[in-house]
Amino acid sequence: MTKVAFAIPGDIEQPTGGYAYDRHVLALLPDLGIEIEHLPLPRSFPRPSGMDLCTTAQALVAPSKDTVLLIDGLAYGAFSAATIAALTHKVVALVHHPLAFETGIDADRAAVLLASETAALAHATRIIVTSRMTSQLLQSDLAVPAAKITVAEPGTDAAPRATDTGVGTGSPLQLLAVGSIVPRKGYAVLIEALARLGDLDWQLTIVGATRDQTELARVEDAIAASGLGDRMTIAGAVDEAALVALYDRADLFVMPSLFEGYGMVLTEAMARGLPIVCTTGGAAAETVPDGAALKVPPGNASALGAALHRALGDALLRASLADASWSAGQTLPRWTDTAQTIATVLKDVAR
Question: For residues 56 and 11, what is the distance between their CA atoms, to the nearest angstrom?
Answer without folding.
Answer: 15
